[in-house]
Amino acid sequence: MFFDRLVGGKIPGISLRGSQWLATIALGLLYVLSGPLTDLFPHARFGVQPWSAHPAIALVMVVYAGVGAVPILFSAVLASWWLVPVADTATGEFSAALVLTAVYLGAGLALDRTTNWRNPEHGLHDLVGFLAVATILALLVSLVDGTPSVLSGAVGERTEPVLFVRLFVGNLLGLVVLSPLLMYVAADGSRAAFARWAGGSALRDGVLFLIVQGGILELVFGLRLWDEFRMSYLLFLPVGVIAMRLGLFGAALALPLTQVGMLAALSWTGTSTGTAFEFQLAMLTLSVTALAMGVLADEQRRAAARIAEHELALREHDRALAQAQRTASTAELAAALAHDLSQPLSAIGTYARASQVLAQRGDADRSQLIDTLGRIAQESARAGQYVRRMRDFFRTGVSHQDRIAAADLIGNTYEHLSDRARRARIRWRSRIDPGLPPLRVDAVQMGAVLANLLNNAYDALADWPGPREIRCDAYRIQEGAKTMLRIRVQDTGPGIAPEVRERLFTPLATTKPGGMGLGLALSRSITERQDGRLWFDPEAERTTFCLDLPVQDPESPETHGGT
Ligand code: ADP
Predict the structure, then answer these.
(1) Which of 22-26, 46-50, 158-162, 476-480 shows the lowest per-residue confidence on average (mean pLDDT)?
(2) Which 8-state DSSP code applies to residue 438?
(3) Radius of gyration for the chain, computed over Cα atoms and rounded to the nearest angstrom
(4) Is beta strand 439-441 parallel, antiparallel or unpaired with respect to 543-550?
């Protein structure tokens, strides 16, 4: 049961694929050969080498090939002891190999199960998991390795702890230094790992690393200007730099290279096993730090990539939003045109019908007919001008600046609506203060804004049983040094319905069955583009809308053209 849970219900790699066989055999050979290669220092009292590559190779074999690696692993363990006999391992060698293989298997499966170590994109979680598994594995392997020496009496009681600590550090160091790189090669396939190494600036960084690290080794161990041990910390610097630049892969490559360089230098200078052990302890600290730096650099790179991805998505979103807004504006323009063109068009229809009646009468009054036809021409010109100006405005944002008296703006707009006022029997009152400066606005657009306010007032009064009056006043207002002109439109209707009160000036707020709720929203945007303001006065007794407009600068006699 426990085993099942450990391996997640299935036993990975119980039968190996062709390439897995090859890789596992290659790792097995490496296991056997690494023994003599690490057997560099005099065996001294304990016969212990300051580092061992065995646990690292075995761990990678199991992570890579699963339970299927066991026969090769077991044979490799036996073969390595045959090549480099460690203490008195003749007795119980077979059972010791079995125990060791089981320990490797457990550690490999645990690592594979608890971390994503097989995936080349490692996170801090994976590194912590790896270090935990590596520590436990190093401990167990040290016990298996050291016990025969203790049992044979080769080690005194007092030195037993030293033996185990040295074995532990050597095994852990091997794991930390070697297994990340082996894992990369096994997980990625060596081709992918090489491509990563050779790609971009990695190759240049790698060559530079070799040169610098070689130079430092020569400085510390070759020239021996100072005590080697004191200066060996210089080796940390290039490893740190490469870990920051190339992430965990950089650290995984730099560590074995540094280790090989350091071991070569130590054995070449005839360093004693004890001193070599101290160097290896320093190397262990460096290795863990470099791996952590590499993982953090990778995580930072991934986070930066994610942020860049998000920014791209955000920009895409903004573009889509702007596009949607443009589409909405176009729809608003179309709706506004339909809304405001209906007035001159229905006036044209009415005048045309009247002309027809006049023309059919035998005693047609020619002057009345001509007058009615003239009105048709006037209305159609108004419609045409309106369409042109609105199109200009929405396409380019250009407003014309006309010099127009408030009385004319109000008079012209009312004139077009007067028929409606008469028919609905609505009283019209207007008071325009004398001596007002002329307005500086686009007369056509402002006419449309005012017409919209008046039409709303007419609509409000259409079925209103109470008093029916619209008032339109114009007077001067002073804002600091700035003079403006206010056109105030009031009606005695029922007032603004509560459901639209809060969003009067937002599109689609309407209470009218055929209404589009665009009139006030568009009127405000047109007014604001002309440095004016359109607002509803909730304090006033009657329903009151105010249009504050800029006046002509008294210095400049006339202004024309676009703003
Ligand atoms: P629409 O006229 O198409 O409804 P508007 O933006 O011009 O669009 O008006 C929005 C709403 O504001 C109207 O439906 C109406 O309910 C309210 N409203 C505007 N002016 C008045 C007014 N003078 N009296 C009462 N309600 C008004």
Answers:
(1) 46-50
(2) P
(3) 46
(4) unpaired
**Which range of residues forms the domain containing residue 461?**
399-563
Q: If DSSP codes are grouped into helix, strand and coil, which group holds residue 531? A: coil
Q: How far apart are CA 189 and CA 192, in angstroms?
A: 6
391 & 407 share domain: no
Q: Give me the helix-helix angle, 124-151 and 54-65, nearest 10°.
A: 130
Atom of ligand 1 nearest to the CA of 522: 6
Ligand 1: residue of 426, 452, 456 to mutate (most ligand atoms within 8 A of CB) is 456
Same-domain status, 207 and 300 = yes
Domains in the chain, number: 4
Higher pLDDT among residues 224 and 402, named by residue: 402
Which of 121, 154, 188 is a domain's end point?
Answer: 188
Check pocket membership of 457 for ligand 1, CB cut-off 6 A.
yes
If you take atom 23 of ligand 1, which residue's CA is the nearest one? 457
Closest residue by Cα to residue 283 from 247, 214, 233: 233
Q: Give the whole-angstrom CA distance, residue 368 versus residue 48.
A: 125
Query: Please, what is the average pLDDT of the chain?
Result: 81
Please report whether residue 63 resides in a domain: yes
Token representation of residue 405: 């008296």
Q: What distance in Å separates the CA atoms of residue 293 and residue 334, rounded to the nearest whole number?
A: 61
pTM: 0.56
> What value does the mean pLDDT take over residues 228-251?
84
Residue whose CA is at the smallest distance from ligand 1 atom 8 = 517
User: CB of 460 closer than 6 A to ligand 1?
Assistant: yes
The span from the CA of 477 to the CA of 498, in Å, is 30
Residue with tokens 């055999």: 25
